[in-house]
Amino acid sequence: MLFTSLAFGKSIEDFVTSTKKHFPNEALQDFLSGNKALLKNIREYNKENIEMLRAIIHRRIEDDVAKGVLKDDIVKTVTAELIFQ
To answer: How many domains does the chain have?
Structure first.
């Protein structure tokens, strides 16, 4: 989920906020809030993977736009596919 969030151009803070909203587990929230340095390290060591995912998402969006799919629908679909698969 972190890579997907970063690939969509979100910050680590955005990721933490979104995770807290959608997964209201106290232990998870405490972990994320207290381990931003870990999340930053994960981001730094996986820049190439995040960029590759960003390129894949961008290509998927371009293909769907060419088919006439609305951008809002594309983002929802791509996000759901990445998170739930």
So the answer is: 1
